[in-house]
Every structure is written in structure tokens, then in C-alpha cells.
Backbone:
């Protein structure tokens, strides 16, 4: 690496390289420094207390499982959609892709407001749902709805990129060998694309766990971890919110690490 | 065996127009044309992998126009092998067996025969990432043949291979065709491949068929300037015809006979004979020119001779050129036998 940089310098690209190195260092430090400080500042005692606090455990668990359900829903509905976008060209495809990206663009509280505008008693859909006993406002169902809304684009886009990376000719050969389109998906596309689907699940879950703005509007209670962190911060201050924050990111990191390990290629492919 | 009637395919930015083609049972047929001419599209539409806009398609005695690819029983081998990267050699070859209607015993027999014939026995447990180009192409062939297809489609099967593997697969294809009498439709941009393997060819240009015929007929008697150029007639000139003469930019050529319908003359480089000294006076079509350009092609040299503003391309063995001491601007005598001037 070092010799690579030096030889670059000799060829005259030196200044640009050092500028890039400097900027990269600044960015990495900017990301890691606050995180490391936050994780190391709380005492072990306060971390222990938080871990034994039933409210904290419940909030973190709620965060993770609602985000997980949102990711699963995204996968079930998003996989065929991602495949469609990856494999077919049709009029209006660009518009559809922009629609999928909308939840990323829209300010988070606006997402909450939007969901509530169809969930209320005055809207026919909200009215219908209340009649069959589905309540959005202040329920776990509401949480999952909001988290799916904000997480869906991350799943669809990642899975789509994964499907696009599989040569279409593999599927064509499979068809010519006698496999139907369903069999081809199961025997060729899925084995080659499931890793990107798992990565999409992780991205979707991560996005959903971190959602705050839309959640406080739709369901302040039951309290998910980000809302609890916010509440403790406003009510008691930084010191009381830090341990919860640390537990939340530790649990999430562990979870994602496990999934990543599980989905890592067993041997290097060429 | 394959009959294509007035087939038209529309894709964004490309069109196959009114393709009419018949391939006989047991024939080795080559679709020739430059990259981007639409050859692969013809293969894929026969296999049912892209939708056709108009026309009918028969394979065997069956109208397959509306059949999905998995019901057509057509094998296809692409130039990049297209092996399934998550399966090993044996799993690749056996991929299509479970969809076969034939009894398992018969399938096993086919599999064993194929594996032995294509010399893949020692590779069956290998990952396909560890195969050479030639081995990959043999696996792809075995996989396509394992389903006992009525027709085998080959998409430039040799062009991604190193020269030594290319020779090996080329011989293998020829032998396989002779041994199994399977109908093969191959796409290639290389006329010498078609010459070696095929009985008949169709030359495709910009989504249309320019000429269909036996290999030697197309090679010897191209009917359009494009085909003439494609089969190596590098000298193609628009000419005025009168009696037994063709005039190009004031240069008069004696012809063997005038067809009366031609608009161009075409001459192969190897038929343009160069010499330092004037040849025998009775030689027809003798002209004097200057060497405009010399290009090295290994054992052979391209020599471009300019006469009255017209450039003629000739080809000489390197040794002959050195013996003649040709350099750019050398004066040189050129003649063409009348029977070597093709009328188009």
C-alpha cells in the first residue's frame, strides 16, 4: 500500500493522493470519534443498570422485532417487485423506481402524518380497518406499518441490484433446458441472488430500527428504543440516555454481524 | 427441421426484419455476419427466449411460435459458456434431466455416453471455476445435449476460446455432428469457421438475410457488395459495363462474360497479381501503378496499389514481397485474370 502511494507520487499524481488520504481520514474520524466516545463514556455500572431495566429491555426488543417483521414483509412483497424491475424494461419503469425511492426522500414526520391520514376513522380505509379490528395509532401494528414504509426501498433496491448482477443468459439457458420460469427462479436466480436478499434484509432492518420521526407521530407508545432514548434525554439528560443508546447499537451490531457471517461466501469465487 | 417464415423481432434500437430460413434435418447450418448484425437474436427467438412480433416458427413438424422455451426441446450454447456458477460440472450437465419425459435408465445411458465422448469423466466433481475455456465449452455442450434436443443452437461457440482450444472444440463439433446427425444452427462472424463446419450458410447484415446458399457458393458467388466484402473480396468497385468490359474510374477491365445486371466488380486480394517486370504482353487487364501502403500480417503482406486514384488491395507472401524489393512508392505491374473478376 505504502509503496503504491509512493510510486503514485513519483508519477505526478502525488498531491491528489495526499488530499484524498487527508479527506478520507477526516471522514472516518468524523464517523467513529463520536460513536466511540458515546460507547466508552457510560460507566459499566450504568450499563448494567440499564441492562436490568425491564423498560429498556422491552424497548430494545420491540425495536428489533418490529424492524425484523418490517424487513420480512419487505422481502415477501419486495422480492418479486425487485425481480421485475431488474429483468424487464417497460414504459414508466423510471417512474416506478422513483416511487420506490420516495420513502427515502420524504421527511420522517411527514411519513407518520401520511400514514395517519389514511388510518383515521374519517378515512374509508381507516374506518374499514377499525371495523375488522386493526388499529394503527399507538399500536405495534402501527409501528410495523411505519417501519415497513421507511425500510422497503432499502430492501427493493438492494435485491434489485443483486438480481441485475446475475447474467440473464443463465436464466435463458435454464429455460432452454426445460425449467419453467418458476423453477428457473428457484434453481438459478435464488441460489445466486439470496446473498443480496440477505444484505437487503439487513439494510431494511437497520433503517427500520433507526426510525424516530415517523414513529413518534404514529406510536409514541408502545415505546421503541429510539423514542425511549429521546424521552430519557429530554427528561433526565445525556447521562441517562447514553446507556440505552449503547445497548441498542451493540445489539444491532451483533445481530448484523451474525447475519453477515451466516451469509458470507464459504469459499472465494472467481 | 427448423422453418422460419417471415419472422420479425422488435427490440429497443434493433429490428430483425422478415427472416425466412429453412434448416434441414441433420444439417450443419451457419449464420454469418459481423457483430451486431442480429445473429444471436435469431437463435434466441428460435429458442423462444425473446418474443417475436410477426411470423411463424416450426421445429420438427411442430408449430412452436407460441410455445415457452422449456417446451421446445432446443439446446443452446453461448460463447461465454454460461455455466451455472453455483453448481459443479456434474450438476451443470444434469440440470435439465429432471424435466425429461424419457425413462431414467435411458437418461443415465445418454449421460454416460456424453461424459465419455466429451472426456469429462475426470472433471465431474470439479467446480466450474477451475476449468479451462475448452473444458467449460465441453461442459456447456454436454449440458445442452443431455436433454436430447431436436436442434442444437451454437452462439459463436469458438470465439471466446484460446487458439489451441478453438481447434479442439472445432474438431469436436464436426465429429459430434457427424456421429449424432443432430441438426445444428451455429452463429459465427468467422467465415473460415463456417467453411470448416457448415454445409450451408446465411449471411446476416443489419437484421436482414443478405444471402443464403452452400458455403462454397456464397464464398465463390456473393450476390451483394456486403457479402462480397464479408467473404474476403476486398476490392469492390462500382463500374460501368459495356460489352465484355467494365470501366472503373477510366480503368478498363476485360471480363469473362457480362451478365448485364451487375453494378459492381469484386476481386479477391489474392487474385491481384503483382510483378516488378511487365508480364507477357498477352496478359489481359495489365496495369502499372505505385505501391501506396504495405501492411504486415505475419506470413503475409497486404499491399495497396494505386492506379489512377483507385486503390487495389493485394496480398503477397512476405518472402515474395522481399524478393521483389517492394517499398512504398515502388512502381509495380498488376494484372487480374478475367475469370477472377466477379460481377455483383
Residues:
Amino acid at each position: 500500500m505504502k509503496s503504491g502511494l509512493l510510486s503514485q507520487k513519483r508519477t505526478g499524481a502525488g498531491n491528489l493522493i495526499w488530499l484524498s488520504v487527508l479527506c478520507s481520514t477526516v471522514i472516518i474520524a468524523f464517523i467513529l470519534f463520536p460513536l466511540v466516545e458515546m460507547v466508552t463514556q457510560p460507566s459499566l455500572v450504568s450499563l448494567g443498570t440499564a441492562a436490568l431495566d425491564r423498560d429498556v429491555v422491552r424497548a430494545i426488543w420491540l425495536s428489533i422485532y418490529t424492524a425484523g417483521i418490517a424487513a420480512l414483509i419487505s422481502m415477501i412483497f419486495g422480492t418479486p417487485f425487485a425481480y421485475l424491475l431488474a429483468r424487464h424494461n417497460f414504459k414508466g419503469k423510471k417512474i416506478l423506481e422513483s416511487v420506490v425511492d420516495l420513502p427515502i426522500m420524504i421527511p420522517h414526520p411527514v411519513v407518520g402524518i401520511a400514514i395517519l391520514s389514511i388510518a383515521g376513522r374519517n378515512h374509508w380505509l381507516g374506518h374499514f380497518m377499525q371495523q375488522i379490528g386493526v388499529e394503527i395509532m399507538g399500536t405495534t401494528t402501527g409501528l410495523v406499518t411505519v417501519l415497513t414504509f421507511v425500510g422497503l426501498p432499502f430492501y427493493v433496491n438492494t435485491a434489485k441490484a443483486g438480481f441485475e448482477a446475475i447474467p440473464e443468459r443463465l436464466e435463458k439457458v435454464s429455460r432452454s433446458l426445460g425449467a419453467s420460469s418458476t423453477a428457473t427462479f428457484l434453481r438459478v436466480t435464488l441460489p445466486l441472488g439470496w446473498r443480496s436478499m440477505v444484505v437487503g434484509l439487513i439494510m431494511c432492518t437497520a433503517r427500520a430500527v433507526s426510525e424516530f420521526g415517523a414513529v413518534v407521530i404514529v406510536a409514541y407508545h408502545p415505546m421503541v428504543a429510539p423514542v425511549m432514548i429521546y424521552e430519557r434525554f429530554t427528561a433526565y439528560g445525556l447521562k441517562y440516555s447514553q446507556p440505552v443508546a449503547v445497548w441498542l447499537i451493540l445489539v444491532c451490531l451483533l445481530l448484523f454481524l451474525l447475519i453477515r457471517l451466516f451469509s458470507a461466501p464459504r469459499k472465494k469465487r472467481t | 427441421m427448423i422453418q422460419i417464415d417471415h419472422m420479425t423481432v422488435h427490440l429497443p434500437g434493433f429490428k430483425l426484419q422478415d427472416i425466412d430460413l429453412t434448416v434441414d434435418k441433420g444439417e450443419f447450418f451457419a449464420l454469418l455476419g459481423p457483430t451486431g448484425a442480429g445473429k444471436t437474436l435469431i437463435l434466441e427467438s428460435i429458442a423462444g427466449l425473446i418474443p417475436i412480433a410477426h411470423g411463424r416458427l416450426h421445429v420438427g413438424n411442430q408449430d412452436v411460435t407460441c410455445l415457452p422455451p422449456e417446451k421446445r426441446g432446443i439446446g443452446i450454447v453461448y460463447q461465454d459458456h454460461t455455466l451455472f456458477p453455483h453448481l459443479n460440472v456434474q450438476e451443470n450437465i444434469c440440470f435439465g434431466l429432471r424435466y425429461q419425459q424419457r425413462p431414467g435408465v435411458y437418461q443415465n445411458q445418454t449421460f454416460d455416453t456424453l461424459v465419455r465422448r466429451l472426456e469429462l469423466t475426470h472433471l465431474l466433481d470439479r467446480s466450474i471455476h477451475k476449468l479451462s475455456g475448452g473444458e467449460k465449452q465441453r461442459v456447456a455442450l454436454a449440458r445442452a445435449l443431455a436433454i436430447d434436443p431436436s436442434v442444437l443452437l451454437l452462439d459463436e461457440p469458438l470465439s471466446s476460446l484460446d487458439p489451441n482450444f478453438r481447434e479442439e472444440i472445432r474438431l469436436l463439433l464436426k465429429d459430434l455432428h457427424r456421429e449424432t446427425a443432430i441438426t445444428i444452427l451455429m452463429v459465427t462472424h468467422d467465415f473460415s469457421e463456417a467453411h470448416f463446419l457448415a454445409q450451408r450458410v446465411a449471411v446476416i447484415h443489419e437484421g436482414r438475410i443478405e444471402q443464403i446458399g452452400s458455403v462454397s457458393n456464397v464464398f465463390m458467388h456473393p450476390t451483394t457488395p456486403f457479402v462480397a466484402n464479408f467473404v474476403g473480396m476486398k476490392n469492390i468497385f462500382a463500374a460501368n459495363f459495356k460489352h465484355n468490359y467494365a470501366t472503373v474510374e477510366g480503368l478498363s477491365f476485360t471480363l469473362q462474360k457480362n451478365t448485364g445486371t451487375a453494378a459492381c466488380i469484386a476481386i479477391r486480394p489474392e487474385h491481384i497479381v503483382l510483378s516488378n517486370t511487365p508480364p507477357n504482353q498477352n496478359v489481359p487487364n495489365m496495369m502499372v501503378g505505385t505501391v501506396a501502403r504495405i501492411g504486415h500480417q505475419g506470413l503475409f503482406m497486404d499491399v495497396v496499389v494505386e492506379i489512377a486514384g483507385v486503390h487495389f488491395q493485394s496480398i503477397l507472401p512476405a518472402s515474395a514481397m522481399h524478393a521483389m524489393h517492394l517499398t512504398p512508392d515502388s512502381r509495380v505491374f498488376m494484372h487480374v485474370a478475367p475469370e477472377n473478376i466477379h460481377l455483383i
User: Anything to note?
Assistant: The CA atoms of residues 200 and 214 of chain B lie 4 Å apart. Chain B touches chain A through 28 residues (CB under 8 Å). Chain B has a mean pLDDT of 91. The domain at 2-226 of chain B is CATH 3.40.50.300 (Rossmann fold).
